[in-house]
Write a structure and sequence with these properties.
Elements lengths: L2 H17 L1 E6 L5 H12 L7 E3 L4 H8 L11 E6 L12 H6 L1 E3 L3 H9 L5 H9 L5 H12 L5 H6 L4 H8 L12 H4 L3 H15 L3 H8 L6 H21 L16 H17 L1 H14 L1 H4 L4 H4 L6 H16 L3 H13 L3 H5 L1 H21 L10 H26 L8 H32 L13 H10 L6 E6 L4 H11 L4 E9 L6 H7 L9 E2 L9 E3 L2 E3 L2 H13 L8 E6 H6 L2 H7 L3 E8 L1 H7 L3 H21 L4 E6 L4 E2 L6 E2 L12 E3 L8 E5 L5 E2 L4 E5 L4 E2 L8 E2 L5 H4 E9 L9 E9 L2 E8 L14 E7 L7 E8 L2 E3 L2 E5 L5 E8 L4 E3 L2 E3 L6 E3 L7 E3 L25 H13 L1 E3 H8 L2 H9 L1 H5 L5 E7 L2 E7 L1
Helix pairs in contact: 1-5, 9-14, 11-13, 12-13, 13-14, 13-15, 14-15, 18-19, 18-21, 18-23, 19-21, 21-22, 21-23, 22-23, 22-25, 30-31
Length: 949
């Protein structure tokens, strides 16, 4: 069997095994004789699949097809249709089989080109094809005659090896220790190099013209041939991605390479890039210098498609920064999205550029959302405004928060000055948008009402949404009361909650005024009486009266809910359980399921988002707490809870130096976003609202709000997080309802986190836990989210600086489940310098992932300024358990207590001088396991180890 026929046979057999039924459309009937041979060979048992060919009669063909396709298991079957195309086959009785099978077609010149590539030179091949090919037999004869020429021993030697092996040898990457067996030894002179060059020409198209261009008539050597070959592969990739003729005439012929040659080049350059990235990077720099006149001609739109060279990547980044400064946000998004979704080779190698692209995309997204947001000044009622904000307006605030989160703790970046300028522009642009939105909304409230209709009020959420669910004995309800859970945050969780077996809905409502915790959190319970709220006390907001008590604390909220829904329902007594968010997360699955077994209603209070915001830590931790909410939902879902309502007391505004400040009386009189006064007052840029118009009873007073996003001067400047006012960001709260129909099986696989820490860097991987032989491993996730925190230390902020081998999404690692290690760089900041252990955990709670705390300690930089007092955690000696040799642990316990230890004292504890010397050698490794730093001093009496404060 000839080379061409054998190539065709291999491809057909592969398609048959992969697809089962294969319909061969042979427009020019070039393969009739070959197919007839296949039919004969199948009858003789030499070809594994039956073959049915159309030879003029559809009736005969249908009779021939009758034995096939009747079983439960699809059969392999080759159907040959000469003279037919995709259009004509639709008019034949074979259409049904055509739709069920796999379409195969192969032009004769394509087959010859594919089969002959690597056998003959590209010039010989194209010259033959240009004369016109009449049939398969003639082509086989031509190829046999061409290959009958004598071949030297080196050419035969090369045929035994793959192109990848030859590439490794040319670039000295073969790792062959025996010099005599290296590729370079076989090709020491001009004659032998010519044989190697011809081999590369046949397989990849690299010709003499390119070699002369690249080395400018210099004498070819083995190493130069290797560099030229790498350059050829890069140039082929560059030209194919360019989609136009190159500027340099020497590169223009590369656009005419045949598809088989291009495939070989693509396979080799990808192999070099993936297997030997450092070599690829070094070679690319050399090639760039040769192609500088060509690369200088590229325009930004072309640069964004060229990923071969770092020069192009740098130029695209610089162009994106300039486009961002110019406000051309759509252009920035066009080139940033591909780079953030699938980082290029160069971005994988340079973490600072990855960070820049992430920030640039977040900035462009914000600018684009602002430009396309519109105004609400033409709307005339609160319902229409709510529809606008929950449909599109919230997207600006979501983009704004994500952008500011990216900006927190930025490292020193190459384009830092330009990005800082762009950030200032965007902040001013956002402030104008937010001020206009707030002013328009204030005007609409004055014309319509500050209190919306009952079905849009916060005070009716419990009665209208939650209480009906509690009256169904088949439902177990979890009610999340989340402080500062802004509407846009709920939209971020919406996609995570939308999974198999769940029905999800998200609607918006208006928080009560003022938008503070003391009002909104208590209004989420059944305290409304006839649509009115009775204020406790005679001054300020200290809860709401209901019956004989006042609702103002978590315990009283639970009591009010229990009195309304859970005390008695029919003959069955129903229990109520209350948790905070941390308690749900830290509870084991079995304990949580047992605790909730007899409960009909579970209430979860969460203050974390608000606490972080008030401490100016919000931007660094918001995503963490959203992940904790998602994790709590998963834990409760797996514990058998089937109805979830998540809502909030109020939203918030993110502030910066663009926020204006208003003065009102003494700085002790106003709150940051509102004033409570006994008299109605008219203040410039403000609006006054009576408590009675909000249907509050018990006090006859007035609220004063800024019409825009300004804050009142309170003597507390610099706050980045405020609420209490009448902006949509503060007032629109989510009502996120999740109805769980059944549990998925994704949690059946248990995963383990393996970690190795060193100097604030950590290597991680996630692997399925070993299963008993009888247990089936149903579904394994391809990626799992991981996050970092310091247990019981909310005052310490952890930022993922860079990562190799995984993706970062909102300060969470999206780590693949493989045997490969992922390397992560961490930055820990707190109010003082110290050393702590970190916990690595799965924040979503979707999978069964066992958290881990590495034994090594991490350095915390005391550079973080917060408004909360840090809880000083007592020093723990649990670190001593990480030492296998307790004598070593005693050394560090001595250091912890006495602050220093001499070599003499060290020898007394360890037992002999040899162990003291061993201690000195392993000192750096030991130091990773203790929560304090130790320096070594040299004295006349030897070394002295001193604990650093």
């Amino acid at each position: 069997m000839s080379i061409i026929t054998n190539y065709l046979k291999t491809e057909i057999e592969q398609k048959l095994r992969e697809q089962g039924i294969v319909i061969w459309l042979d427009k020019d009937a070039h393969y009739n004789n070959y197919v007839d041979e296949l039919i004969t060979r199948h009858r003789q048992g030499e070809f594994f699949a039956p073959v049915v060919a159309f030879r003029g009669s559809y009736l005969e063909m249908l009779f021939a097809l009758e034995p096939y396709g009747n079983g439960l298991v699809p059969e392999t079957l080759l159907i040959h249709m000469p003279g037919h195309t995709e259009d004509t086959i639709r008019k034949t009785p074979i259409l049904e089989l055509y739709r069920a099978g796999y379409r195969f077609r192969k032009a004769l010149d394509t087959l010859i080109r594919e089969a002959s590539t690597g056998q003959v030179t590209p010039t010989e091949l194209e010259n033959y094809l240009s004369q016109g090919v009449s049939d398969l037999a003639t082509a086989e004869t031509w190829l046999e005659n061409t290959l009958s020429q004598p071949q030297d021993s080196l050419a035969k030697y090369l045929e035994n090896f793959s192109l990848e092996w030859i590439l490794e040898g040319l670039l000295d990457l073969d790792n062959i220790i025996d010099e005599a067996k290296k590729l370079r030894v076989k090709f020491p002179d001009t004659h032998s190099l010519d044989t190697l060059t011809q081999h590369l020409y046949r397989h990849t198209g690299m010709d003499e013209a390119f070699l002369q261009f690249y080395y400018n008539q210099e004498t070819l050597s083995f190493s130069r041939l290797g560099e030229a070959f790498a350059a050829w592969l890069m140039c082929v990739e560059y030209v194919q991605n360019l989609n136009r003729l190159p500027h340099l005439p020497q590169l223009q012929p590369l656009s005419q390479l045949s598809l088989p040659l291009r495939k070989n080049c693509k396979q080799l350059i990808e192999y070099l890039c993936q297997r030997y990235p450092d070599t690829y990077a070094a070679q690319a720099v050399i090639v760039e210098s040769h192609l500088e006149p060509e690369l200088q001609t590229l325009i930004p739109e072309e640069l964004s498609k060229i990923q071969t060279f770092q020069w192009g990547e740098n130029a695209v980044l610089a162009a994106a920064v300039q486009a961002l400064l110019a406000g051309n946000y759509s252009k920035v998004l066009t080139c940033s999205k591909p780079r953030t979704e699938t980082p290029t080779f160069w971005l994988e190698r340079h973490s600072t550029q990855r960070i820049e692209w992430t920030l640039i995309q977040a900035a462009a997204t914000l600018g684009d959302k602002i430009n396309n947001s519109g105004r609400i000044k033409t709307l005339d009622n609160l319902r229409a405004v709510l529809e606008y904000y929950t449909d599109s307006g919230y997207q600006v605030d979501l983009a704004h928060r994500r952008f500011e989160q990216q900006y927190v703790n930025l490292p020193d970046l190459p384009h830092f000055a330009q990005l800082l300028e762009a950030t200032e522009q965007l902040r001013r642009q956002y402030r104008v948008w937010a001020d206009n939105l707030a002013q328009d909304f204030s005007d609409i409230c004055q014309k319509d009402s500050f209190l919306p209709e009952a079905d849009l009020q916060q005070r009716t959420i419990y009665d209208q949404v939650v209480h009906p669910l509690t009256q169904n004995n088949h439902k177990k309800v979890a009610y999340f009361l989340i402080d500062a859970f802004r509407y846009e945050m709920a939209t971020e969780l919406l996609q995570d909650f939308t999974e198999a077996g769940s029905v999800v809905s998200l609607k918006g409502r208006y928080a009560e005024l003022p938008s503070i915790t003391a009002v909104g959190m208590n209004a989420l319970t059944p305290v409304s009486q006839g649509g009115k709220l009775l204020l406790a006390g005679d001054n300020g907001f200290k809860g709401f009266k209901t019956g004989e008590y006042t609702v103002r604390s978590p315990q009283e909220r639970v009591r009010a809910i229990k009195d309304k829904s859970v005390s008695q329902h029919g003959k069955e007594s129903k229990e109520i359980i209350s948790f905070n968010l941390t308690e749900v997360r830290n509870c084991t699955a079995s304990k949580l399921k047992k605790t909730c077994a007899n409960a009909r209603l579970i209430i979860i209070h969460s203050r974390e988002i608000d606490d972080a915001g008030e401490a100016n830590l919000g931007l660094a931790t918001f995503e963490t707490w959203l992940g904790q909410i998602k994790s709590a939902w998963n834990h409760l879902k797996n514990a058998g809870i089937n109805e979830f309502i998540l809502t909030a007391d109020h939203g918030f505004l993110l502030q910066d130096h663009t926020t204006k400040e208003k003065t009102y009386g003494s700085k002790k009189d106003p709150y940051r976003r509102y004033i409570l006064d006994s008299e109605p007052r008219t203040e410039e840029g403000c609006v006054t609202v009576s408590l009675s118009s909000l249907k509050y009873e018990g006090q006859n007073k007035y609220l004063i709000f800024c019409k825009d996003t300004s804050v009142f001067a309170t003597g507390n400047p610099g706050a980045t997080f405020v609420h209490g006012g009448n902006s949509l960001q503060e007032r629109v709260i989510p009502v996120l309802k999740v109805s769980q129909r059944y549990n998925s099986l994704s949690g059946m696989v248990k995963y383990l986190i393996e970690a190795q820490a060193d100097n604030n860097r950590i290597r991680l991987r996630v692997k399925p836990a070993p299963l008993p032989q009888s247990v089936l491993n149903f579904t394994e996730s391809k990626t799992i989210n991981l996050a970092f925190h310091v247990p019981n230390r909310q005052d310490i902020q952890i930022t993922i600086k860079d990562v190799i081998g995984a993706k970062i999404n909102n300060q969470q690692l999206q780590i693949p489940v493989t045997d490969e290690w992922v390397e992560v760089g961490l930055d820990l900041r707190g109010q003082r310098d110290e050393r702590v252990r970190i916990e690595i955990f799965h924040p979503d709670g979707i999978e069964d992932v066992e958290a881990t705390i590495p034994q090594e300690y991490f350095d915390v930089s005391g550079s973080l300024k917060t408004e909360v007092s840090t809880t000083q955690t007592p020093s723990s000696n649990d670190w001593q358990n990480s030492f296998e040799d307790q004598a070593i642990a005693q050394v560090f316990l001595h250091l912890q207590k006495h602050n220093s230890i001499t070599e003499i004292e060290l020898t007394q504890i360890l037992g002999n001088p040899r162990k003291t010397r061993r201690f000195a050698l392993d000192f750096e490794e030991y130091l990773k396991k203790v929560p304090f730093l130790v320096r070594i001093e040299t004295t006349n009496n030897g070394k002295r180890y001193v604990k650093q404060n």
